[in-house]
Amino acid sequence: MTTLSSKILSQDKEHFATLAVDAVMRLKSCVKLNVGGLSVHGVVMKYGYDNDPHVLSGLISMYAEMGFLNGLKYLFLGIGEGDLVSQTAMVVGSAKLGDIGFARKLFDEMPARDVVAWNAMITGYVQCGEAVKGLELFGEMEMMGLKVNESSMVAVLSACTRLGALDTGQWAHRYIESKGLKVDVMLGSALVDMYAKCGDIKMAMDVFMGMEEKNVYTWSSAMGGLAMNGYGKKCVELFSLMQQEGLKPNEVTFTSVLKGCAVAGLVEEGVKFFGMIKEYGIEPQAEHYGCMVDLYGQTGRLNEALNVINSMPFTPHAGAWGALLKASKLSNNVEMAALASKKMVELEAKNDGAYVELSNVYADFNEWDSVDGVRHKMKSERVTKVPGLSVIETHA
């Protein structure tokens, strides 16, 4: 009788495990497709699979991808303490959805924390704009003797990139080498991005050229870095080299190469690349249109820049009008500059900066009556000018 019961129990466990794995796979599909998640959760609860740690982790990831912070907190209340896998998933999900305070509370209450949990919390701080806290937490993690891995250093480099902290980024690079960490695609791309955005384009390209394996993000980071640092033609050359390698460009790649064209004043090339976007099955985004406005504007072709704005399949964003304004001022075209400034005011009615910009445009062209008109408009809209602040980074 005991043998028979054990056999049945064993079969039940195997059956449950199979169904649990199936539930996890379905949840992953829901995350990728962003559909059907709530229905699968209902089925999971109906058959009691939501107690399985891997299923629970899948549910947490699903709600994080769907942007349902309340759903995450509901799950948290239902699981009690949970295990390390589900606790870490909760930290990752909460941080990803911007509730960094809740994520830190969960993190601090965890009875045990592995490197995955620490990396999740550090990354959360960086993504929420608190890069300094992320670096501080990394320091705590290292002092505790935890083994730092590639993901840890990607988070550290991202923090350095956000802060523009080249010195700290260089230290991180030396640290990676001293620990013998493998510079894989993710870590290599993070290094390229950090060096490029912190202004050391030579080192960025040295890292790029030394990488054994590169993906589309690596190439895009290198191109974006070249454009950002004024090497427009080199950016375009790198795009051609990427095509020769047979890699398919993505949205970020086209943004990078279009910025390169704008920097170098390569209008014909820019028009060609903009036309290629749809050929790769990508719908041009606001940033792509903004790059084209900048490209035409920087070469003095203001009417064509305005035509790009008017041809956008969505409401033109402030960045596009800002690019036109900048170009109009360079070309001393007061009418176009005033138009661009007015559009920025319409889009950002409560932003004092837009009004100040419009006022400055009129002042640059000695149209003092119009300057007064802008000031009256600000008063009627109750827009107040915020005093400027200076931020000074100090190093010990």
Q: What does this protein look like?
A:
There is one protein chain. This protein has 396 residues and is mainly alpha-helical. It is 74% helix and 0% strand. The chain has 22 helices and no strands. It starts with a helix and ends in a 16-residue tail after the last helix. Mean pLDDT is 80; it is low at 1-25, 30-38 and 386-396.
Q: How many β-strand runs?
A: 0
**What does the radius of gyration come to?**
26 Å
Q: With helices defined by DSSP (H or I, 4 residues minimum), what is the helix count?
A: 22
Helix content: over 70%
Strand content: under 5%
Instruction: Give the termini distance in whole angstroms.
Output: 74 Å
The biggest beta sheet is recorded as: none
Query: Which regions have little confidence, pLDDT < 50, spanning 5+ residues?
Result: 1-25, 30-38, 386-396
Shape estimate: globular
Structural class by sheet pairing and helices: mainly alpha
H-E string: HHHHHHHHHHHHHHHHHHHHHH
Mean pLDDT: 80
